[in-house]
Design brief:
Blueprint: H1 3-25, H2 29-54, H3 57-60, H4 67-121
Helix pairs in contact: 1-2
């Protein structure tokens, strides 16, 4: 069991032991919270003392971190993101151009219809 998991397990265990102890002793609500926190704190500190004395945490935490590989992967992902962004910008520009051309053609056709209506009225 890793040291972090051990601390979490014993802290949660201490919380539930504190709640059960307070319920059995029939304390008031404020005392229930206070004693539960104190008992959980005792289990928390006890877990750290046990880890300090019995578990060699430094040997478990030695993980080789390949910085070069990490940076290479990040550079690839960033380049891929920029390429996708450029493609999306190009697609959006095509859509904008189509919309603008449709709007301008509608305005032109509307002007022609208005001109015809004024000519007929005159």
């Amino acid at each position: 069991m890793r040291a972090d998991n051990f601390v979490g397990f014993l802290t949660a265990f201490g919380f539930f032991v504190g709640v059960i102890f307070c319920i059995m002793a029939e304390y008031e609500p404020l005392e229930l919270v206070a004693y539960t926190c104190v008992i959980a704190l005792i289990f928390f500190l006890g877990s750290h003392i046990a880890i300090m004395n019995y578990i060699d945490a430094s040997s478990e935490s030695k993980i080789y971190f390949d910085k070069e590989k990490y940076e290479e992967i990040n550079e690839f992902l960033i380049e891929e993101l920029f390429a996708r962004e450029r493609r999306m910008d190009a697609m959006m520009q095509v859509k904008r151009d189509k919309l603008l051309s449709k709007k301008s053609s509608k305005k032109k056709s509307k002007k022609k219809v208005d001109e015809r209506a004024t000519q007929k009225a005159a």
